[in-house]
Design brief:
The protein has a single domain, classed as Severin (3-Layer(aba) Sandwich), CATH 3.40.20. Helices cover 27% and strands 27% of the residues. It is built from three helices and eight strands. GO terms for molecular function: actin binding; Arp2/3 complex binding; growth factor activity.
Length: 138
Amino acid sequence: MSESLVVCDVAEDLVEKLRKFRFRKETNNAAIIMKIDKDKRLVVLDEELEYSGNFSFFNLRKTFIVYSYKYQHDDGRVSYPLCFIFSSPVGCKPEQQMMYAGSKNKLVQTAELTKVFEIRNTEDLTEEWLREKLGFFH
């Protein structure tokens, strides 16, 4: 029989932080980066990033990201979609990869995220990639 899939809960303080993040008033791009605490089997805050002006997607090349993005539509409108970007962790043990994969849906449900994107290679995470993905929603 194969190993059962471990689904981690989301830390309460992170749930509250994500709720506040959803309704933030700032108009700059910002991100909440999360990780799994293997011992506690919890999805926890790793770091928060805020950007003014131009920024690099390099800092977003992590496994669990909730990203508030200033999206300029072709017709001139501006929206601030909340995007969840998931990539499978590279270079870690299979059981850790399964822990991240198994916890992804729980995190999406708990944080009530609707714009969910998966990327295989974090090197491909660029603004063009994100704009292309968001184009399907608008």
